[in-house]
Task: structure prediction
Amino acid sequence: MSSVVLSDVADLGVLQTAAAVRSGKLTAEEVAEAALERIERLDNRFNCFTRIDGEDALKAARKTDCAIRRGDDPGPLAGVTFGAKDLFDVAGETTTAGARVRDGAAPAEDDAEAVAQLKRGGCTLLGAQNMDEFAYGFTTENAHTGATHNPHDVARIAGGSSGGSAAAVAAGLCAGAIGSDTNGSVRVPAAFCGVFGLKPTFGRLSRHGVFPFVHSLDHVGCFARSAGDLAALYDGLQGRDARDHAQADREVELALPGVNAADRKLRVGILGGYFAESASPEVLEALDEVAEALGATEEVELPEVERARSAAFVLSAAEGGSLHLDNLQRAPQDYDHAVRDRLIAGAMMPAGLVMRAQRFRRWFRDAVQPWFQRYDVLLAPATPFAAQPIGQKTIRMARGELSVRANAGLYTQPISFIGLPVVVAPLTAPGKLPLGVQLIGAPWTEARLIRTARRLERDGVARVRPPTELAP
Amino acid sequence: MTPANLESYAQQTARLLEINLPRGGAALVAAQLEILFAHARAFAEFDLPPACEPLPEYQP
Result:
């Protein structure tokens, strides 16, 4: 494997692209053409995209260019290319959610709010991206659409369930991407593919037009190749949308304007106990590197984390099973059997246990909240291990031989269970597989977390490297 | 529950839910149920205060 230096227009990030297009140095059409050419040339290696909206992308880009020629404001993200996990509605297209059982479903009438917001900001949508079937998994090994291959080693998984989105950003097929995170589906692939990922506070971003997995836990998130790019995308996704009943009534709190500001006396704790028990040595080294860079020395042991993860596990299966009951009755054979069996088992969980999981969630939230009076940021590994080979079902961990598909989210699941915001800072080094560290904050502190990621980036700790698999 | 009991639970509950399990499907679902019930035990045995209600509209 040999490294290549990314050098063409498609290598530009979110902020670089927007600046070039807004200033007239590049047209949005040139940017879209470059991205589409790269997808055409490279995506047969990675399988990031399940649908490429080439004509629509070029049409949208030309519209942006026309606006600029007219002297209109094309939006802060003018010409920025992005992809959307194939569970975001795109008007006129069928939202597959990575599932055969959705074949023949009616095309969406409107764009999902997240897609619409980025388009309104001037972005160019390139297409739909691969995922685990119905977002139920951490590997993006989809029985119907195939596995997404990790750009840092195509023999390995990209992580999931938003694997196509993370891998596409890592491979430079788009400047940014949007995904969803119920139990870790942004954070796990961000770590495995070595890109920045954001799972905001539960209720921050609109989920309208996003095919659900677990209503109680679903979040919209995003991926980018720099902390500044992540801030720009996140800002573009913010805004009140009454159509998502779970969305909180919060003002927009922009992250980009202060992304380079220094947080004096940032108080950072390191999550120990559960979060260290099953981690591989290289994961713990990565965590140490981040902790040292942020001056963190104190270890924090949150109470009952393992039970929280278990409650999230049961809640996901039960709500997911309930959501899919009609299709499980009608066409169980159309599901990937690994997903089908989990959903059916989830549908069979007694209501008393599901309610108990919801009650436990309240208890856990109340038990964790006080720690944020003492710390601004808590650190934890994003995953217990680096990306595993495609097709590998299990991995030897401290607790025994465990399923990769179910356990890559061991460290993400307890955090999303109580809706805390998280930024994944990627740690990449030549000859090594990427890893990620979760920067976890109190509710609504996304901007501070992105600033912290930017600080790590500035200090050379967090970084995105060109994937070794991009050699021609 | 034993594996046989779980398989029986899977078969009976599938009938109640009107899901046609394929041949051998009950055993596969039972394997998943075993994992889920193990997780459920982990939090169900925790002594929650009676006042700890589920949040109807979860807010972090």
